[in-house]
Amino acid sequence: MEQLLWHRDPPRLLRSPILVTAWDGWFDVGGAATAAVEAMRGPQATHLASIDADEFFDFNEHRPNLRIGPEGRRIVEWPANDVHCLALDDRQRDLVFIEGVEPHLRWRTFVDAVVEVIERLDVKLVVTLGAMIAEVPHTRPPTITGSTTDAELGKLLRLNLPSYQGPTGIVGALHQRLDAAKIPAVSLRASVPHYVSGAPNPKASRALLERFERVTGLPTHWAKLDKETFDWEAQVNEAMTENDEIIQYVRALEQRYDTQAESSLPTSEDLAAEFERFLRQHDNDPPN
User: Fold this and answer.
1) If you average pLDDT over residues 67-96, what whole number do you get?
2) CA dist., res. 1 & res. 170, Å (int)
3) Residues in CB range of 81: below 8 A, 6 or more apart
4) N or C: which end of the chain has fewer CB within 10 A?
5) Whole-structure pTM value
């Protein structure tokens, strides 16, 4: 596909990789999902490919940035969608990342590019990360929900079938395509307080990373966001100090949260072993 520009091969043959995706847009409130992917891949990841922005964006809606580079030269930075890989030499499988900006145009063609990455790198599972507005308090751990249409994977991870119906984003279009191609896929979503939904939200990013690590057993270094999370919560608390109405509202949210005190996705460490068994069973499946 001409829109997918490959720059280099992985540093070695990837071992049963998992693809993790997030896009700035409809499904990324507070920038939590894209920030989680950026933190997970870190500086050691290898940049493999880019999806050319020219056919997928209305540049009146998302204008490119102009900056002055070395020697005073002008550089135009277009909306990016990049493919990276992270070879985990001490693990049984590696990671691939696609992150960037949700496209405006030609979504089916854009999804074709993502599927080409999956096929070329022999990806065994796709995990999309997202964040959505919800009536939850900022003082409690963000609720992480998950879903999958794969019956076996859903049973292992105690995940429900997707239930949302309505306007969707590129994540919804991608999952539909993966379902049709019988490529296992999971959606993980963080709930972001609606009264403090601006970016950044390191607390939601941290929660996504922690849950991904618990389920897959692969390192995400989520604890590196501890200080940012503490500082963010302190800033929100300070902003609320003189607003009695919002303080009472948050207390009501806390009471409801504590009463429910449950998540769609369990936190048992046993999930990592069950998840790994599922992937091993599918490592040698013939391609679709």
Assistant:
1) 94
2) 19
3) 23, 50, 51, 53, 56, 98, 99, 100, 101, 103
4) C
5) 0.91
Give the bridge partners for 75, in sequence order: 67
Residue 265 clears pLDDT 70, i.e. is over it: no
> Would you tell me how many other CB atoms lie within 10 Å of the CB of residue 151?
9
Nearest to 15 by CA among 90, 82, 83: 90
Q: How many residues does the chain have?
A: 288
Host H or E run for residue 16:
none
Give me 74's structure tokens. 């002008």
User: Is the predicted pLDDT of residue 263 greater than 50, yes or no?
Assistant: no
Alpha carbon distances (Å) from 231 to 103, 118, 203, 227: 32, 38, 10, 6
Please report which confidence band the pLDDT of residue 168 belongs to, taking 50, 70 and 90 as the band edges: very high
| Cβ atoms 31, 199 nearer than 8 A | yes
* Contacts of residue 262, Cβ cutoff 8 Å, sequence gap at least 6: none
Closest CA to 124 of 219, 18, 10, 20: 18
Scanning the chain, the segments in alpha helix (DSSP H) are: 32-41, 107-120, 151-157, 170-180, 202-216, 226-240, 244-260, 270-283
Token reading at 79 = 């909306």
Interacting residues of 201 by C-beta distance below 8 A, sequence separation 6+? 29, 30, 31, 32, 35, 131, 192, 232
Q: Are 77 and 65 in contact (CB under 8 A)?
A: yes
- Percentages of the chain per state (helix, strand, coil), in multiples of 5: 40, 20, 40
Burial class (CB in 10 A: 0-12, 13-18, 19+), 235: exposed
Q: What are the pLDDT digits (tens) for 99-118? A: 999 999 999 999 999 999 99
